[in-house]
Every structure is written in C-alpha cells, then in structure tokens.
Amino acid sequence: MRVQKYNFDGTPMNQLTTVFLEKVRFHLPLGLYPGEKLCGNEIFISLSVSISAPNTKYDASFLNYEWLLTIIRSNAEKSCELLEQLAQNILADVHQSLNNVQPEKIEVAVEKPHLPVAGFQAASAGIKLLWTR
Question: Mind listing the pLDDT tens digit for each residue in 63-80?
C-alpha cells in the first residue's frame, strides 16, 4: 500500500525515486589536445535517473545500477573528443532505452580532475546535462 504525503497547503506531495552512480572512474583518450589523445585523461562519469515513486518495489526494478553502468561503459568505450559529446551520448542512450517508463529527470555529469591548463587549481572541470519532463 502506498501512503500519500501532503505539502503544508494540503496538496499532494510529489515523490521521486532516483537511482544513480556517482563518479565512475575511467581512463580515456578524451580531449582536444594531442597529448590527451595519446596519454588519455582520468574521467569521472555520474548518472542519475528519477521516476515518480512506484506503487510497488517491482515497478522500480527497471532502474538498477548494472543497467546504468552498462550504458556508461558502452559510451566510454566509443571514441569522442569532447566531454559534451560523451554526456550527450549517455543521456540519449538512457532516454532511448526506457521503453515503458517515463522518467521525470535524467542527469549526466562528465568531469576531468586534471586539465592540461597551466595553473589549474580546482577539484575538477566538466559538463552536466539535465533532462526534465
């Protein structure tokens, strides 16, 4: 049985269930500079998919870590130059592979902790894409 929760004004509260993988590590020949393609870069990829709260545990079984990891790996193995391309490819694959399920939100982040830029002083740099219904 699903318990309905309400906001302070009495309207029904929307609840999302989110499955995610955060900062999956890869070493990829990704980047515009020749040295990046030759030596590669450490890349972190994060992916999350949110749906409206399911009625049963079974309804959420389509969202699992292995499925997300398979999508991330398959795209990481493909050649591309830009973080933006990689993030967009992952987002498109997630969206296309959701057959009967309609997500509320899909978020992809691709980060480089080390940039070939003199004086780079940050935890990482990257791109985040957010798709919402």
Answer: 778 889 999 999 999 888
